[in-house]
């Protein structure tokens, strides 16, 4: 049986992977709901209100699963990783508390109005609730990423007499640690792209069945605009984060690039290959000479150090980091390709007729989830063998538990997660399988709602504008 440390790492990786896909969707979906409601209030077109009602049901389910999976994950800090919690608690604890006090309370305070109040409060008050929920998701990302970024690039701390990390004279140095701004931008944009491709995939699915469905046309058009505009921005943001990582976590970049050996006169960009850590080389490598130095140093002859400059016991697992990074980057460029394809279709006025574009959008629908998980694996596995980079090793962070106890809890998590969240995902897919339909909407002029609870619905309002 694997030792307790390895099992604890598997358990945290499993639970955080499940959890991460839900916030990455809710962050983007909350902002999308804000846009839909704003467009409805501005234009009065019923199609936007109908799409809001369509996606707010999905948001409610995803938000609930995200909260549940996040609570379960946080308990592991006190069980499997109690030593880590003790050492870093004075720094990490307040950041996590700020997330609850500022973001979670804000979301909880307005979520009920957003989900159930569209026919019970004025449209503008309801829009305020939607904005507050969207803002709450962004604030939550701010604090969580600040805490995680501090673990990647610790700053503003001092070591206490008992070995704890204590806050220094300024919390600003802790919160806005060197990698935080880059990681916040990269992660939030990734959430927007994740949502865009889910929305685009659902819209494409219904367009294949009925090209005249106004809601499907509108959501597909909006999603493809996001893909075409935001995917290039994400690639640039990722490049900036890579340069920041090279400065503060060079071993991670060496593993991402597969550079076992140093290259004093320009390093190649290895596109594909099979890393062999035992022989310190990448077998069957397909590479572009000096391209890695051009990207990372902006100089084709710029020197790049390799893992031969890092002691063996401080090197991350190259194979995992190498392939996770390529999955993330490959999907990023695939998103860009689909966005450019949609621009061509739009230019030729065939956005709703090109069947292969719609099929490609369906295939790319879950790509955002895969990309964010691959990015997370790159980030976290590349930080190894540390929990707090360069200061606290993973082996020194785990609780003194026996392997059978951790294995039993891991098995329980796998069974329960697959059953509960599997049912949740099935229900979400069932909601998405239904095409968006026009139905009753509130009056966007700011008057009273068309109907109140318990009163017979008013006649349906169908949007008339073309997408």
From TrEMBL:
UniProtKB keywords: Cell membrane, Electron transport, Heme, Iron, Membrane, Metal-binding, Transmembrane, Transmembrane helix, Transport
Chain spans, region Disordered: 438-467
Cell compartment(s), UniProt: Cell inner membrane; Cell membrane
Positions of transmembrane segments: 20-42, 54-75, 95-118, 125-145, 189-208, 220-237, 320-344, 356-377, 406-429
InterPro entries in alphabetical order: Cyt-d_ubiquinol_oxidase_su_1
Superkingdom, natural source: Bacteria
Topology with respect to the bilayer: Multi-pass membrane protein
One Pfam family linked to the record: Cyt_bd_oxida_I
Family listed: Belongs to the cytochrome ubiquinol oxidase subunit 1 family.
Name listed for the protein in its UniProt record: Cytochrome ubiquinol oxidase subunit I
Species assigned in the record: Aquamicrobium soli
């Amino acid at each position: 049986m694997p030792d307790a440390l390895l099992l604890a790492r598997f358990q945290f990786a499993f639970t955080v992977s499940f959890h991460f896909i839900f916030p990455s969707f809710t962050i983007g979906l909350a902002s999308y709901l804000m846009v839909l409601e704003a467009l409805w209030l501005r234009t009065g077109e019923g199609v936007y209100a109908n799409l809001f009602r369509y996606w707010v049901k999905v948001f409610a389910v995803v938000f609930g699963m995200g909260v549940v999976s996040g609570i379960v994950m946080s308990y592991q800090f006190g069980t499997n990783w109690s030593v880590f919690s003790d050492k870093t608690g004075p720094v990490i604890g307040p950041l996590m508390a700020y997330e609850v006090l500022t973001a979670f309370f804000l979301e909880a305070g307005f979520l009920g109005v957003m989900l159930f109040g569209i026919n019970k409060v004025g449209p503008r008050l309801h829009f305020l609730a939607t904005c507050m929920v969207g803002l709450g998701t962004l604030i939550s990302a701010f604090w969580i990423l600040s805490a995680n970024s501090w673990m990647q690039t610790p700053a503003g701390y001092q070591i206490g007499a008992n070995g704890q990390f204590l806050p220094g004279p300024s919390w600003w140095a802790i919160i806005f640690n060197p990698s935080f701004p880059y990681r916040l931008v990269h992660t939030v944009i990734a959430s927007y792209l994740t949502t865009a491709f889910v929305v685009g995939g659902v819209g494409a699915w219904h367009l294949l069945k009925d090209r005249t469905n106004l809601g499907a046309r509108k959501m597909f058009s909006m999603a493809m605009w996001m893909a075409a505009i935001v995917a290039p921005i994400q690639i640039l943001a990722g490049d900036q984060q890579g340069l920041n990582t090279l400065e503060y976590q060079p071993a991670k970049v060496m593993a991402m690039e597969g550079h076992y050996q140093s290259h004093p006169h320009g390093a190649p960009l290895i596109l594909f290959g099979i890393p062999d850590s035992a022989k310190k080389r990448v077998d069957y490598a397909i590479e572009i000479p000096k391209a890695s130095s051009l990207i990372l140093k902006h100089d084709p002859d710029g020197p790049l150090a390799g893992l031969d400059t890092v002691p063996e016991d401080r090197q991350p697992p190259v194979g995992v980091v190498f392939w996770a990074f390529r999955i993330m980057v490959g999907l990023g460029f695939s998103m860009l390709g689909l966005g450019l394809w949609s621009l061509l279709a739009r230019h030729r006025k065939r956005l709703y007729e090109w069947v292969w574009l719609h099929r490609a959008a369906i295939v790319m629908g879950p790509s955002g989830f895969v990309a964010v998980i691959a990015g997370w694996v790159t980030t976290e596995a590349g930080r190894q063998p540390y929990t707090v980079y360069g200061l606290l090793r993973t082996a020194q962070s785990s609780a003194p538990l026996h392997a059978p106890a951790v294995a039993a809890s891991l098995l329980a998590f796998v069974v329960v997660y697959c059953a509960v969240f599997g049912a949740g995902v099935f229900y979400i897919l069932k909601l998405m399988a239904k095409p968006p339909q026009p139905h009753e909407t509130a009056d966007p002029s700011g008057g009273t709602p068309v109907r109140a609870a318990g009163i017979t619905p008013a006649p349906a309002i169908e949007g008339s504008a073309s997408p």
